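quick q for whoever's on today - can somebody do inverse folding on this one?? i tried earlier but teh output was garbage lol. tokens:
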């Protein structure tokens, strides 16, 4: 799988031969269930009104890596499918951090890997994983491109979300096993500089650039 940056990377989730639905979460989605054999994509840089309504997000003073406020702009890319779906490292690198974010609506089990891409340090977060994903891991552990490093978690272990992986890139070294997966409109300009489009390494999984906002209503 070739990313738009020109480098060759492994897919985080093998979608070969799979039917794919690209979601539009700028508007309410009543049914997120997937037919058997179907995967879905949740877009990067997408404003999602009404989705983040747990206590974690209602506390607008709660800061994650310096990001607070009304956080509803999605800065990762979601790939959804059956629980237990393997999740792979997109490139050679190392396990940087891993852990469990317990609040409802958070990542649940999460892994962050570190990489050097064309002399540039890059960190990658894989969120909403299964509990066993964090087993037999240690900081500094080497991972290879295409190596399975985790699996989609169930709702009971992934923050109470439909099974998927939240994949997010960062040019800034995380302080913990956490990154703000959604940011406020006020913080959006700096978040675009810190968290680049995951399609740089995942390839062009869907079309569209820039901030995706809800359609204007008359």
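ok took a stab at it. sequence:
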């Amino acid at each position: 799988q070739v990313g738009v940056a020109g480098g060759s990377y492994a897919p985080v989730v093998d979608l070969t031969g799979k039917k794919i639905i690209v979601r539009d979460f700028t508007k309410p989605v009543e049914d997120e269930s997937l037919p058997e054999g179907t995967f879905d994509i949740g877009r990067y840089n997408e404003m999602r009104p009404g989705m983040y309504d747990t206590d974690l997000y209602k506390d607008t003073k709660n800061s994650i890596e310096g990001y607070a406020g009304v956080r509803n702009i999605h800065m990762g890319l979601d790939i959804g499918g059956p629980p237990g779906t393997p999740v792979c490292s997109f490139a050679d690198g190392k396990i940087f951090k891993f852990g469990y974010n317990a609040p409802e609506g958070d990542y649940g089990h999460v892994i962050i890997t570190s990489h050097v891409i064309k002399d540039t340090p890059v960190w990658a977060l894989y969120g909403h994983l299964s509990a066993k994903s964090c087993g037999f891991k240690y900081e500094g552990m080497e991972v290879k491109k295409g190596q399975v490093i985790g699996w989609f978690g169930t709702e009971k272990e992934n923050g109470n979300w439909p099974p998927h992986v939240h994949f997010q890139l960062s040019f800034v070294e995380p302080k913990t096993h956490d990154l703000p997966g959604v940011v406020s409109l006020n913080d959006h300009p700096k978040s675009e500089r810190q968290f680049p489009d995951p399609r740089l390494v995942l390839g062009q999984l869907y079309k569209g650039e820039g901030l995706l906002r809800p359609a204007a209503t008359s």
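fwiw Helices lie at 55-58, 188-194, 199-202. also The longest strand covers residues 108-117. so keep that in mind when u check it
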